[in-house]
Design brief:
The complex is a heterodimer. Chain A is mainly alpha-helical. Chain A has one domain: MetI-like (MetI-like fold), CATH 1.10.3720.10. In chain B, a hairpin with a 2-residue loop joins strand 4 and strand 5. Chain B is globular and about 55 Å long. The chains are: A mainly alpha, B alpha/beta. Chains A and B meet through helix 12 and helix 13 of A and helix 2, strand 6, helix 3 and helix 5 of B.
Chain lengths: ~350, ~250
């Protein structure tokens, strides 16, 4: 192997020699270097020009159209619609507070030191508080029906509940798939394969259109709740397979040692097997959670106004027609903020949990 | 000295893995306080037999009775037996996500419902006994093989078992660590623990065993006190085995 070449020092002190050695040391590399430089030159200046130099930050649609750059003024004008959907304008401090609550809950749960029983109760009361804020109807808050919920709070409600509530079900399914009881194993396999075999879009359609047909007359289940249930049941099948991968990686000796000490099945599973198995599957679990977070945007097809749908509503304003790129960049930025935090967090968690252990 | 009371009784035990006949009509009686060493070539069924005693393996024919409880598919009987029978494995099988101390206190707290402080005191006393007290807060991965195996022995002892099973406890150890583990086992034997030990350590067998059981091809070929076993093996198969493993 070649010795590592000094990169920064050589580049700064003797740029010509450095680039001859690193960028033009063979005909292929020379061509590649030229092509890449051309691509950078062709793309970066126009993007900077559009997004920053010619952009309109404050102003009306006419100013935007005249400038020819990005119309960030559109985002500035419509951010409340994008963030909160068609939630009553004067009451939008409530969804804002709900978002803050969600973020606080996530931050508190992120630290392993808070993985105690109280965290469960914290989440329960946190979610109750979110529901109270969003619905209102008590303590002087006007009632807001959940068909007017929208934007980021709806995305957070759907994805967080989808992730948190699918997880216990997924663990049971993963254990069931490895059970020695044939009926339990068959049921788990059937569940997992069935739900993995259908696209989420069709699950949401079923939940929204087909499911009500099967209910007895007079019984209605809220559309949001149906979509939420669909997301939970769907996600559980995928998470179950990730968890099963972890279960399979635990050596047989761990279970045997636990059994030999007299631990029963649930004690063995909860105290010995799961803590080790789940640590192994943090990367695929987080991958699945990121997918679920983004997939909640599919509720657009059944008429729920999540973050992406409310962006679309904002874009349908005839005055501001045509600023799609700006609108979707803003929405993508919000999604990215959450998903990137999740993936950074998973890296932190892996490092931390592996400290001082095999 | 072993008493007359039989605490482990195997009667015509048979076990198959698919079509492979792993145990053939194995019968064995172990008395309270007796130290039994099980020897034999690999694949002879020694580990399978010892693992049947706490039902990590199920036998398909015959009867196994431990402390008067017959092992059946009934979970209650299995758990009752396991609470009273400790086991030490070749691969230690410590729980890598728990500290040494937590490894020891886990079963007393969850199985025996002991208070945490009480379980900690108990664990520390056993850690002292296996001379590993200063490592209580480390994780198993930070210890040497010999230290891990001593922790594993202490972990079993924390459940105050009346019988200890050892399944090749020194086979995965580097040579220089074998002695520290055997020392702990000898001490345990001197305290009068009932022990069944699958091992290739013939020195250990000579020193502490009351009887040596020799197995081959799933059968018990010969059972004798160590002096007799090593000096005058009755069976040809035994002589052959001894000539292979004892190199002076």
């Amino acid at each position: 192997m070649a010795a590592p070449l000094p990169l920064s020092g050589g580049l700064l002190s003797r740029p010509l020699a450095w680039s001859r050695r690193h960028l033009f040391n063979s005909p292929t590399n020379a061509v590649m270097t030229v092509v890449v430089l051309w691509l950078l030159w062709a793309t970066i200046p126009p993007v900077v020009d559009w997004a920053l130099l010619k952009a309109v930050w404050v102003g009306d649609p006419a100013a935007c159209r005249a400038a020819g750059g990005a119309c960030w003024a559109f985002v500035g004008q419509k951010y409340r619609l994008i963030l909160f959907g068609i939630y009553p304008y004067e009451e939008q401090w409530r969804p804002l507070l709900a978002i803050v609550l969600f973020i606080v809950l996530m931050l508190v749960s992120a630290h392993p030191a808070s993985w105690r029983r109280w965290l469960f109760w914290l989440w329960l009361s946190g979610l109750a508080l979110v529901a109270l804020l969003m619905w209102g109807g008590v303590a002087g808050l006007p009632f807001v029906a959940n068909d007017r919920w929208g934007g980021l709070p709806l995305t957070l409600v759907l994805s967080t509940s989808g992730i948190v509530l699918s997880f216990p079900l997924a663990v049971l399914l993963a254990l069931g798939r490895r059970s020695r009881l044939p009926a339990v194993r068959a049921a788990s396999i059937a569940y997992i394969e069935l739900w993995r075999g259908v696209p989420l879009v069709s699950v949401l359609f079923m939940a929204s259109i087909m499911f009500p047909l099967f209910l007895p007359e007079g019984v209605t289940i809220d559309k949001l709740l149906r979509a939420q249930l669909g997301i939970i049941l769907f996600t559980a099948a995928y998470v179950a397979e990730a968890v099963r991968g972890g279960l399979q990686a635990i050596p047989r000796g761990q279970a045997e040692a636990a059994e030999a000490l007299g631990l029963g099945y649930w004690q063995k599973t909860r105290l010995i097997i799961l803590p080790q198995a789940l640590r192994l599957v943090i990367p695929p679990l987080v991958g699945q959670f990121i997918t679920t977070f983004k997939d909640t945007s599919l509720v657009i097809i059944i008429g729920l106004y999540d973050l992406l749908s409310s962006t679309k509503v904002a874009l349908s304003d005839p005055q501001w027609r045509g600023f799609y790129v700006e609108g979707y960049i803003a929405a993508a930025g919000i999604y990215f903020l959450f998903t990137f935090s999740m993936s950074r967090y998973s890296q932190y968690l892996e490092r931390r949990l592996n400290r001082g252990r095999i | 000295m072993p008493s007359d009371e039989i605490v482990i009784a195997l009667r015509d035990v048979n076990k198959w893995y698919g079509s492979f006949h792993a145990l053939r009509d194995v019968s064995l009686a172990v008395h309270r306080g007796e130290r039994v060493v099980v020897a034999g070539p690999s694949g002879s069924g020694k580990s399978t037999m010892i693992r049947c005693i706490n039902r990590l393996e199920e036998h398909q024919a015959g009867a196994i009775t431990v402390n008067g409880v017959e092992l059946t598919s009934d979970v209650k009987s299995v758990e009752a037996v396991r609470r009273d029978v400790g086991m030490v494995f070749q691969q230690f099988n410590l729980f890598p996500h728990l500290t040494v101390l937590e490894n020891l206190t886990l079963a007393p707290i969850w199985v025996k419902k002991m208070r945490r402080s009480e379980a900690t005191d108990l664990a520390m006393s056993y850690l002292t006994r296996v001379k590993i007290r200063e490592h209580a807060d480390k994780y198993p991965g930070q210890l040497s093989g010999g230290q891990q195996q001593r922790v594993a022995i202490a972990r079993s002892l924390c459940m105050k078992p009346s019988i200890m099973l050892f399944d090749e406890p020194t086979s995965a150890l580097d040579p220089e660590m074998i002695k520290e583990v055997l020392d702990v086992m000898v001490e345990l034997a001197e305290d009068g623990m009932t022990m069944v030990c699958v091992t290739h350590e013939m020195g250990f067998a000579r020193q502490v065993a009351d009887s040596v059981v020799f197995m081959a091809e799933g059968q018990i070929v010969e059972t004798a006190p160590p002096a007799e076993f090593f000096a005058h093996p009755k069976e040809e198969r035994t002589r052959q085995f001894l000539s292979q493993i004892i190199r002076h």
